[in-house]
């Protein structure tokens, strides 16, 4: 398992770089847990699984 934390806005290619660093070739084995719908959408576009963290602290699979 690899965990990455970024601050600020995400660039569209960040997911691909994280996969390369982790030596992962199948994006469906990656997951992003975040409170930003924009970040989750970027991850979904490259095939990652996503989980939205609501401001009230609950999780929702996306």
Overview of the molecule:
With 62 residues, the protein is an alpha+beta fold. The protein has one domain. A three-stranded mixed beta sheet has the order 1-2-3, with helices on one face. The protein is elongated, with a radius of gyration of 11 Å. The relative contact order is 0.19. The model has no long low-confidence stretch (mean pLDDT 77).
Features:
62 residues; alpha+beta; 3-stranded mixed beta sheet; 2 helices; elongated; HAD-SF_hydro_IA; HAD_sf; HAD-like_sf
Mean pLDDT score: 77
Largest sheet: 3 strands, mixed
How many domains, in number, for the residues?
Answer: 1
Largest beta sheet: strand ordering: 1-2-3
Distance between the termini: 20 Å
Shape: elongated
Order of SSEs = HEHEE
Helix and strand composition category: alpha+beta
Q: What amount of the residues lies in strands? A: 15-25%
| Helical fraction | 25-40%
The low-confidence parts are none
The rounded Rg comes to 11 Å
Tally of contiguous helical segments:
2
Number of strands: 3
In short:
This protein is of the alpha+beta class. The protein has one domain. Helices cover 29% and strands 19% of the residues.
SSE topology:
Blueprint: H1 14-22, E1 31-34, H2 37-45, E2 49-53, E3 59-61
Parallel strand pairs: 1-2
Antiparallel strand pairs: 2-3
